[in-house]
Amino acid sequence: MGKLDGKVAIVTGGSRGIGAASALALADEGADVAISYSSSPDRAKAVVADLEAKGVRAAAFQADQADAAQAAGLIQRVVEQFGKLDILVSNAAVSGGGLLGGEPVDQAAIDRQLAVNYTGVVAGIQAAVPLLPDGGRIISISSGVATRAGFQGMAYYTGTKSALEGFSRGAARDLAHRGITVNVVQPGFVDTEGNPADGPAAAVFLPTAAMGRYGRPEEIAAGVAFLATPQASYVTGAVLRIDGGYAA
Hints:
The chain has helices at residues 17-28, 41-52, 68-82, 107-128, 155-175, 202-205, 217-228, and strands at residues 8-11, 32-37, 58-62, 87-90, 137-141, 181-187, 239-242. With 248 residues, the protein is α/β, with parallel strands linked by helices. It has a single domain (8-240), classed as NAD(P)-binding Rossmann-like Domain (Rossmann fold, 3-Layer(aba) Sandwich), CATH 3.40.50. The chain has a 7-stranded parallel β-sheet with strand order 3-2-1-4-5-6-7, with helices on both faces. Helix 1 crosses helix 7 (217-228). The termini are far apart. Pfam families: adh_short_C2 (PF13561). Keywords: Oxidoreductase.
C-alpha cells in the first residue's frame, strides 16, 4: 500500500528531468499521475508507459504554460479524465535572461519566461484550488537562485522564481483553513538535459555547491513526494532546499 493510493496528481513539464522523476516518485507511492508537456510528445508517451508499468493510471496532456488559458484548461482536462485532483506539482519552467545593463535582451524571451515560470503557474493554481479537496497539495519547483543569485546575468530568471516563492507563501496563508498545503522545492544544480553535469557550465557551478556535485532528478523528486504525503500535513509555506549546499 502506497502513501498516495487513490490520489490523483498532475506534474507539469513531466516529460523529462525533474518533472519525469517527480511523476515516477508519486506513482511509486500509488498515485495516478497526469503529466503535461509542451513540445515532446514522444518523451511524454514514454513517461506515461513507465508510469503505467507501476500499476497506476497515467496520461499526458499537451499545454503551453506560457498561455494562462491553457495552464488553467489543463487542470480541467485532467479532472475530466481522472475524475478529481489531489496534488498539483508545477514544474514546467524555462531559464534565460542576460546581463542587466549589458547587450539588449530578447524581450519576447524575457516575457515568455515570466509567463511560464510565474503567470502560468499562478493560473494553474487558481484553476486547481476550487477542485482540490481539503487536505490537497500544491507543490511548485523553484530554484536556488531565488535565495542566492550567485552569478551575473540571473536577474530576470531569479525574479520569476522569487515571485513564485512569494506567491506560494501568500497562498499557504489563504488556503490553510482547508488544510491545503502550499510548498516550494528549491533545487540546486541538477544533472538534466538542459544542464548536464559534464556540460561547459559545470566548472563554474560546482565550486558553489558545498557537496561539490550535481544533484540527481530523483533526489529532487524525493522531496516532492514527501510534501505530497500525509506525513507532510503540517508543512506549508515552506521552501525545501535540495541544493547540495548551494545556499549554505
